[in-house]
Amino acid sequence: MYVSIIMPSYNRYPLNLYSLYALEKQNFDLTKMEVILIDDASTDETPLLKNFQPLYHFKYIRNKKKLGTASARNKGIKKAIGKIIIFLDSEMVVDPEYVNNHYRLHLRNTNLVVIGGKKQKLLTHLYPDFDAEQIKDVSQIVKKSQLVKDKLRNMTKKKVNYKNIAAMIRKLKKPVPLLTKEDIHVFDKLLPYLVPYKKNAGLLNYLRENFSTSPIAWMACGGNLSLKKDLINNIGGYDEDFKGWGPEDAEFAYRLYKAGAKFFIDYELERFHQEHPKQQNKVSSDTKNWILFQDKHPDLAVCIRALNLIKKNDYALMDNVMKEYLAVINDYPGEFQQFFNSIIILLQQIRILKLENKPIINLMQNSGIELDEERKKQIYKEREMIKSYGKFNNLISLFDFLSEK
């Protein structure tokens, strides 16, 4: 067995079935590929997949109670017999070269983590509880494609145009499929149902030009990546302390980064996210888990991600700060600890204030630094010394921005 594909799933039927259909059409030796779907105690029709019989090796594993994505992935890792592991979210549909492209990269490289760099939205179903953005996406594909318009007209027996899509969707009683198994099996038939996906595009676009030298490349790692099983075993798999929504994948990537893994974004790896109703408590759960991530790794590399909450997608600043930080600790080991600790504490405070639903202001005061005169004096002394070197301007700018926020 060359490749094991691990797919954790919770209440994603029939989207996960469509994902499995796409894997049947891979231009790869299917006898050398296994797919492990871990049903994390779904309450929908996901258990029907235990009878799924594709051309590739398929394992259906069901948890008796919901354990979370990290635990589900770890269970898949234990059951996997492939030397190369691909983690694939259960609502993803991939192009026919997806597995082969992952596999060939690992043949030429060791210690490699491959990240897919091309992602779009795919509308395989209409849901009555789509949000405004998703309804806009449906309108967009109706406006572009006469084929989609005709299909919706045949389904609803009513006149369809991009202006009345919202009313049509709100009247649905249950999800309605737009595509069939045969459509999924013919890649070109998916094209009219695709919408550009902009989430996280800023980081991927930035890294396209800066990847080889960037210390933040690991941040592009999400729930869809591949690496050798030995590398996973070396760092101990996913951290099961993370429950609910994220960022167990980012924490996993960070430990890989610290263990010396090499990250590679393949911009030819094509994957499509099947749109579904969005999770209501996602933001609160995500923020709590990011605070847990910060507590587990109180490092600048981790905490700097909080900048996205106040300086949206300023990845150039993050990248340059980390390069300067690594240069300082290499050239001046053990020095400027109070200065660096203050930056970390101020960054940590951003997420704490967000969780408490408070304005992200007065970071020096809210963190307690403002009240400690001796500590504050030492911090600014170290700041002036670093500034005097004349080559760490991004570090100084970040500190000044946070301290004045």
Keywords:
405 residues, alpha/beta, Spore Coat Polysaccharide Biosynthesis Protein SpsA, Chain A, 3 domains, 9-stranded mixed beta sheet, two-stranded antiparallel ribbon, 11 strands, globular
* Mean pLDDT across residues: 92
CATH top-level class of the largest domain:
Alpha Beta
Q: Would you tell me the structural class of the helices and strands?
A: alpha/beta
CATH topology-level name of the largest domain: Spore Coat Polysaccharide Biosynthesis Protein SpsA, Chain A
> Radius of gyration over alpha carbons?
23 Å
Helix content range of the residues, please? 40-55%
Domain unit count = 3
Describe this structure in words.
By secondary structure, this protein is of the alpha/beta class. It folds into three domains: 3-117 and 197-270, Alpha-Beta Complex (Spore Coat Polysaccharide Biosynthesis Protein SpsA, Chain A), CATH 3.90.550; 125-178, no CATH class; 298-404, no CATH class. The protein has 17 helices and eleven strands. Helix 1 links the parallel strand 1 (3-9) and strand 2. The longest helix has 19 residues, at 337-355. The radius of gyration is 23 Å and the shape is globular.
